[in-house]
Amino acid sequence: MGQPVRDYLLTLCVTAAVTYLLTGPVRKFAIAVGAMPAIRARDVHREPTPRLGGIAMFGGLCAGLIVADHLHNLKSVFELSNEPRALLSGAALIWLIGVLDDKFELDALIKLGAQMIAAAVMVIQGLTILWLPIPGVGTVALTQWQGTLLTVALVVVTINAVNFVDGLDGLAAGMVCIASAAFFLYAYRLWFGNMIEAAAPATLFTAILMGMCLGFLPHNMHPARIFMGDSGSMLIGLVLAAAAISVTGQVDPDTMRIFEGSERGATHAMLPVFIPLLLPLTIIAIPAADLILAIVRRTWNGQSPFAADRGHLHHRLLEIGHSHSRAVLIMYFWSALIAFGAVGYSVHSASMWIVFVIVAASAVGLILLLMPRFTPRTPHWANRFVPPRYRHRAKEQASSPSYDEKPATVGSGAQQGPADAQMGEESPERAPVAVGVSGVNGATAIGARSRFPERRSIDSSR
């Protein structure tokens, strides 16, 4: 069992390395072609930031599939199943549409149609839901049309859930990475624990997805140097949906009877397999809840469900006082709690200690939500080893001439350091975008908008 783990680890590392190395050149390419839209009213960053990060992520996906195809323990996935080719076909289509949207801002209905076509392409090549394990009923076989509609619906919901949550630096990539890590543990247990070969493609997909996210995160963490854009968010959403469809719709419940002894026991054992089918509502429940709330909110206000606004969950975390980094970590926490809690329950559904752990962790999360003004500070001796926003402010003011020269720039922001003051002084004089300029960052956490007059000038030009 150790050898397959090493193969998955190698595939993950290659995917992460290729994604990481490609992101730098892709950033320069995005700046050169002008894939840096002006700051909108709903954005939380202060400078135009290049998109098209999905190009690097798609390169990592291709590299991971190529490496896995040449590994002894993983090449059987390509020999016995057409699902990797189906995934690559659908991913290439959705990625291309995402690249065009990052550059030209396509209409929302066009993107929705492309998502449905990408899902249909995967269905044609065999990546579809064939049956459902229903508690108390057993296994229900689906007709071709029922399976197709359910597959398309799951793909579209998952893609848009990930796309909706992509509003802060590192948020979407981190949450999907957490979800794919939890899902990998379950799929790997199905394959090598119960020797169910049909779970092998989902295990590979989640390993590659983790590599894509981990390779992109160093460039996307706050302050982000590049955004994944729709080319990245729709891509990772599709891969996540493909893994859920593979392990749910392709694993035959009859194979579970060998280990459970009866059809009722097999149905109970298949409940964890049914969980990934509801992936947007369990593993990534946070973005799914955000998606549903956004649709209800916009419809209630008489707007289109596709109209953008600043009412997402991550926007509300910033409004109640959380910093950018803390808001992202809180979203990570809830995603990990739901994802690994679901996987833990699927393994030991009769253990009450799992419920107690989830309740205790939820209480800790609620306490963190109620402490938005708490700002951790490091000891004086560690100031030189940590980012400026975690240093003692008095020491920074005494050592930095920028605070003495421009006290109004610093204001009372607890998160602002010398780098922020320097950006505030230079921003009115420099061009918003220039090739090779290292100061083009993104999604800086901000408090009251009145602190930044340059933001108002950008918004007023719309």
In words, what does this structure look like?
- The protein has 20 helices and two strands.
- By secondary structure, the protein is mainly α.
- The relative contact order is 0.13.
- 65% of the residues lie in helices and 2% in strands.
- Strand 1 and strand 2 (138-141) form a beta hairpin.
- It starts with a helix and ends with a helix.
- It is globular and about 60 Å long.
- Strands 1-2 form a two-stranded antiparallel ribbon.
- The longest helix has 32 residues, at 2-33.
Strand order of the main beta sheet, please? 1-2
SSE order, one letter for each helix or strand: HHHHHEEHHHHHHHHHHHHHHH
Q: If helices are DSSP runs of H or I spanning 4 or more residues, what is the number of helices?
A: 20
Shape: globular
User: Uncertain runs with pLDDT below 50, 5 residues or more?
Assistant: 395-462
Percent of residues in β-strands:
under 5%
Mean model confidence by pLDDT: 75
Largest sheet: 2 strands, antiparallel
The tally of beta strands, per DSSP, is 2
Question: What topology does this entry show?
Answer:
Elements: H1 2-33, H2 53-69, H3 75-80, H4 83-104, H5 108-124, E1 131-134, E2 138-141, H6 144-165, H7 171-194, H8 200-220, H9 229-249, H10 257-260, H11 263-277, H12 285-300, H13 313-319, H14 324-347, H15 352-369, H16 393-399, H17 401-405, H18 407-410, H19 418-426, H20 453-460
Antiparallel strand pairs: 1-2
Helix pairs in contact: 1-2, 1-8, 2-4, 2-8, 2-9, 4-5, 4-9, 5-6, 6-9, 6-12, 7-8, 7-9, 7-14, 8-9, 9-11, 11-14, 14-15
